[in-house]
Design goal:
The structure holds 2 protein chains of 2 kinds. By secondary structure, chain A is of the alpha+beta class. Chain A folds into 2 domains: 2-74, Beta-grasp domain (Ubiquitin-like (UB roll), Roll); 85-146, [2Fe-2S]-binding domain (DNA polymerase, domain 1, Orthogonal Bundle), CATH 1.10.150. Chain A has 6 helices and 5 strands; from the N terminus they run E-E-H-E-E-H-E-H-H-H-H. Chain A starts with a strand and ends in a 9-residue tail after the last helix. In chain A, 46% of the residues are buried. Chain B folds into 3 domains: 7-52, 2-Layer Sandwich (Uridine Diphospho-n-acetylenolpyruvylglucosamine Reductase, domain 2); 62-172, Uridine Diphospho-n-acetylenolpyruvylglucosamine Reductase, domain 3 (2-Layer Sandwich); 177-280, Enolase-like, domain 1, CATH 3.30.390.50. Chain B has helices spanning 14-23, 36-41, 77-82, 84-89, 91-98, 103-106, 111-117, 124-130, 148-151, 224-230, 237-251, 261-285, and strands spanning 7-10, 27-30, 49-52, 62-64, 68-72, 134-139, 142-147, 152-154, 157-158, 165-172, 177-183, 190-200, 206-214, 221-222. Chain B is an alpha+beta fold. A 5-stranded antiparallel sheet of chain B has the order 4-5-10-6-7. Chain B has a 4-stranded antiparallel sheet with strand order 11-12-13-14, sandwiched between helices. In chain B, helix 11 (237-251) packs across helix 12 (261-285). The chains are: A alpha+beta, B alpha+beta.
Chain lengths: 155, 286
Amino acid sequence: MKVSVVVNGAGHVVDCHPSTLLVHLLREELQLTGTHVGCDTSSCGACTVILDGAAVKSCTVLAGQADGREIETVEGLGPDGRLGPLQRAFAEHFALQCGFCTSGFLMAATALLRENPEPSESEVRKALEGNLCRCTGYQHIVDAVLSDPTGSGQP
Amino acid sequence: MRPPDFAFHTSPTLEDAVSVLASENGSMALAGGQSLIPMLRFRLVRPSVVVDIGRIEGLDTIESSEDILEIGALVTTNRVAQSSEVRALSPLWADAASAIADPLVRNLGTVGGNLAHADPLNDLPAALVAARGRVVAEGANGTRVIESDDLFAGPFETSLRRAELITGIRLPRSSAGAYEKMKRAAADYGVAGVAVQITGNGSGRIAVAGIAVTGGEEVATRAREAETLLVGSDADPSTIARAAAATAAAARMPGDERGSPRYKSELVKVLAGRAIRRAMERGAAG
């Protein structure tokens, strides 16, 4: 089946099998491998992308459901090969070690900060409940998200 | 794990979805996909056609009248969790929706899907039963309204007919409601949950009480004896304690890797007490 998607602002028409999952469409058809497959059972959130403005687990979306929709992946956070502000905040706060879960956390946090530019610590923790990290113990990730990386809290 | 082969059909209208589901053997409806897609991957279901009902218009509204809060089947559980209207008119439903999985799953999972899937550990069935809600369903023979007590036939089974789809739910409004849930880990099912909704008689006594348990032997076990204990009382501590014990007795909690029957029964007793007290506090405040 033909599926047309806009990914990080660029339109694509992909010919894929009806049982294709969005994460595989991104990684295998579009070679956007920043989105990771972790648990593959909708638990870990490593595959988190933003679909029409909402953070979702791309391993639990069928390609056909994404047809005609807009998708943002981690590649869109640093379009010219440079890190975006939230990515820099993750680096500065040691919010990653092995890095496998990082793109998922970045996308879930990006969706949060757009909706709520000055979240409380508890709001950050709730928004990241669907993302698992086995290295950091979460505190540094929460610190990075709370560090006002986009400068939106500036007067 | 990749899903097995199937054909994918996007239904533009409810009529189209009902007709495709009726005519195609082995077809299944897909709403948000947060239960169906994992089941496809684990080969627990093998549909020939997946019918995407997620783009049907008009099923994603939240509306209220004097007595009833109506939620469309395609409203995501995150919208229910965050809606100030739901928080005010059915705090039980706002609590229960907030308790589902995590925000990423709630961004896609729908009210209709959560109910129709009829997983004994899904949170919305107990919230529907405790609220004495009704489900509106559309099928080949037209529209019908199903009482909450008649919807769930057993684990993963409902009284919905073939090619019949939930289009929305109607909830009696009450500010005196609450849902209490115990979870072991973020990415796991809950252990148990208790839903409570109460209507006062206007002079400090309980006129109607609804109590239902998540995680028992049945899908949404209604605790009738506990409800009877509360009706006519002013929810004094000893009545609450007896109602909580009756709730645990009704639930017949099965033992599994999340706990023994005895542990879970004790847990339901504690959750029931908390939910009744919170519902009463909210009712007094609202």
